[in-house]
Amino acid sequence: MSSETPPTAALDAARTAQRAAIGAARVPAWFPAVAGLTYVAGFGLLGAAALTHGGGRPALAAAGAVLCVLNIVAFALVAGRAVRAGVLPRSSGSTVPAQWVWVSGWLVPTEILLAGLVWLVTREVGWGCVALGVLLGISTWWRMSALRQHVAAR
């Protein structure tokens, strides 16, 4: 508050900010499941396309690509909804427990390495895609659900 701002104006601004924070868009309940399942199905279909030798290969690849794009669109819609609401959650450690920052920092690279290991062991890029989809899908669903519960408990 500056010295020129009347106290009533500062209180009005604080009330407006509080109302905006209370009514801010939260991650929808459906989002963790959709994000996880589109990872599993999208990468699974891409992997199946790589493993298939026949006429169904283009259809599997197209369906997998569409699901991967839908995953990106779902993330963009949820992020856009939060931006339009005018209030974004802080990204500092005070909002999200430090363990979440730590887990997110190592989990996705580990999943990519494990999927790469599956690819190397099986010598089939399709199995690497399937493994990546399953690992990313499960971890995304788990992390987003747990984070939603953490935010709801606050």
Give a brief rundown of this model.
Helices cover 78% and strands 0% of the residues. The chain is mainly alpha-helical. The chain crosses the membrane at residues 29-53, 59-79, 100-119, 125-144.
Q: What does this protein look like?
A:
The protein is built from five helices and no strands. It is mainly α and 154 residues long. The protein has one domain (25-153). The two termini are 27 Å apart. 21% of the residues are buried. The mean pLDDT is 80.
Q: What are the key terms here?
A:
single chain, 154 residues, mainly alpha, 5 helices
Report the principal-axis shape: elongated
Query: Which percent range fits the helix content?
Result: over 70%
Estimate the mean pLDDT confidence. Answer: 80
Tally of helical segments:
5
Strand content: under 5%
* Radius of gyration from CA coordinates: 21 Å
Main pleated sheet = none
Please report the total strand number as a whole number: 0
| Gap from first CA to last CA | 27 Å
H-E order: HHHHH
The low-confidence parts are none
- Number of domain units: 1
Q: Structural class from helices and strands?
A: mainly alpha
Layout of SSEs?
Layout: H1 7-22, H2 31-51, H3 57-85, H4 98-122, H5 125-153
Helix pairs in contact: 2-3, 2-5, 4-5
